[in-house]
Write a structure and sequence with these properties.
This protein is an alpha+beta fold. It is 21% helix and 21% strand. Strand 1 and strand 2 form a beta hairpin. It is elongated and about 125 Å long. The termini are far apart.
Length: 237
């Protein structure tokens, strides 16, 4: 550059400013909108097919063995996680072990996860015949006899009785003088009173039979026994 009077002036160089701008750009990275961020890139959705490896109908999840991905065979098969919410079917959603399925899936930090699972050709899944076992129903109490505790009727219960509240009475004999705990008719049938009387001992029984036999002998038999004893004494002397 030449000034008035023919004196040459030097122009300031722009190289240091350009070098600083490039260094800041390399540290901070690309500006917004300029380039793609790998972390924000949506996952790639792929198509696969295979069969149900196992499925827990109570928990609602299982795994699919993928034998084909994007039309190419997968050997050995890969496990793909499946949740019941991803199954295309009506009613209770589940899979039967060995059931053939087609699905779309993605790769996540936990592994391969299915996104939409259908039957062959895009139809609904068949599902499993199993159902989760619920709580066992409570045992029904054995019904008691149909007797009204208010009036003693046999064709209804106390809550259905049309009569006003009656005085309290024994539920066993319907008496108003006592309650069932003091019922004499119920105590009369107790096992202690219904037992058979004890039999006499054999010695007492034999003595009783001997006394009966001695008292029932005739006078002639007694005289014969006396003469026989006298003869036995004389022969002995």
């Amino acid at each position: 550059m030449t000034a008035r009077g023919g004196t040459a002036l030097e122009c300031p160089t722009t190289a240091p400013a350009l070098t600083y701008t490039m260094a800041v750009h390399s540290i901070s990275g690309p500006r917004r909108g300029g380039g793609s961020d790998p972390a924000r890139t949506p996952p790639q959705i792929l198509a696969g097919s295979g069969f149900c490896k196992w499925f827990n109908v109570r928990m609602g999840f299982g795994f699919i063995s993928m034998t084909s991905s994007e039309g190419k065979p997968v050997d050995p098969p890969l496990d793909v996680f499946v949740h019941q919410s991803k199954l295309v079917m009506e009613g209770f959603r589940s899979l039967r072990e060995g059931e053939q399925v087609e699905f779309t899936f993605k790769r996540s930090s936990k592994g391969l996860e299915s996104l939409r699972v259908t039957g062959p050709g895009g139809g609904p899944c068949s599902g499993s015949d199993r159902r989760p076992k619920g709580k066992a129903p409570p045992l029904k109490r054995k019904p008691k006899g149909d007797r009204c505790y208010n009036c003693g009727g046999l064709d209804h219960h106390a809550k259905e009785c049309g009569l006003p509240p009656q005085p309290k009475k024994c539920h066993y004999c319907q008496s108003v003088t006592h309650m069932v705990a003091q019922c004499p008719h119920k105590g009369a049938l107790s096992p202690s009173t219904s037992q058979e009387p004890q039999r006499p001992s054999t010695s007492a029984q034999s003595q009783e039979e001997g006394s009966r036999s001695g008292s029932s002998s005739s006078p002639e038999e007694a005289s014969q026994r006396g003469s026989h004893s006298q003869r036995w004494r004389k022969s002995r002397d």
